[in-house]
Amino acid sequence: MQIISKHTDYYDCMQAYGIDKELKFHRKTIVKQFSEITNHYNKFSLYSNHFSDPERNIEIALLGFCGKSYPIVIVTPTVNLKDLNTRIQIDKEKKVYYNYNEFCKDNGFTDNYLVGKRFYHSGHIDTNFHQIADLFKLHIPDFWETTDCPYFLLKKNYATGVESSYSFIENPILAEYKFNQIVSTEIAYQEIAQFLGQIKIRNKPEIKTLADKELIVKAGFDTKISFRKGKKNV
Predict the structure, then answer these.
(1) Contact by Cβ (8 Å): 120, 113
(2) For 44-91, how does the pLDDT look when each residue is reduced to its tens digit (9 = 90+)?
(3) Segment (H or E) for 59
(4) What is the mean pLDDT of the chain?
(5) Average pLDDT estimate for 152-180
(6) For residue range 19-54, what is the model confidence (pLDDT) as tens digits?
(7) E-strand spans in the chain?
(8) Which residues, other chains included, contact 131 with Cβ-Cβ below 8 Å and sequence gap of 6+?
(9) Which of 191, 68, 196 is nearest to 137 (CA)?
(10) How crowded is residue 28: how many other Cβ atoms within 10 Å of its Cβ?
């Protein structure tokens, strides 16, 4: 697989072991509205998938990868996002969890509450974490059979202020979401290549096969006497 991209990701190093130039991955990160992906976007709504206190933001999102769905919890410090240096610092301090129990342990959850200066019922986060993949499968059951995108990130779009608004990010940088903790470099590269290979087969134009009679006529023979048609008398 040959990767054509302006950014790098953690599995790119696998190209050092050989590249199949017949299979190309034009990797570009594109941010869309979820409404562009499905007509059922208005039904895809969780109670809330964003929680914050003076020290941190907690967000539930869904990372889809080659036919599989991975619910994630993203924790970032609560700071002023207008400052570029601050945003860079946020990326460095961002924590991503694929295991809910690990998230609870690392962030001071008890059975009922998040320990902090402000308190939120942990049941909402728990429910959303375990429901988001099921909701996606319910409302877009044929997504992986119709898409050309090997992986995506689905998260709430808070800029619009609309409750049912979600951002659908095609080909996000997986390294930023610590995806190597879940899928190794080798497996990630192989699964993307296999996924794109299946798309190539799916999109391959169907070759029409001619019947014997059609082949005879195309070759210039007469189907009745089995010889080439004679020249017309002038």
Answers:
(1) yes
(2) 665 555 666 667 788 889 999 999 999 999 988 776 555 555 555 666
(3) strand 56-65
(4) 78
(5) 81
(6) 999 999 999 999 988 878 777 656 566 555 566 666
(7) 2-5, 24-27, 30-33, 50-53, 56-65, 68-77, 95-97, 151-156, 166-170
(8) 46
(9) 68
(10) 11
pTM (2 d.p.): 0.76
Tokens standing for residue 162: 């609309």
Please give the single-letter amino acid code of residue 219.
A
Contact of 163 with 46, CB cutoff 8 Å: no
Count how many residues are written for the chain: 234
Q: How far apart are CA 68 and CA 219, in angstroms?
A: 50
Q: Please report, as a single letter, which amino acid is at residue 44.
A: F
Dist CA 25 CA 220 (whole Å): 44
Distance of CA 151 to the CA centre of its chain: 3
Exposed (0-12), middle (13-18) or buried (19+): which is 26, by Cβ within 10 Å?
exposed
Q: Which two tokens stand for residue 28?
A: 């570009």
The structure tokens 């992906």 sit at 37
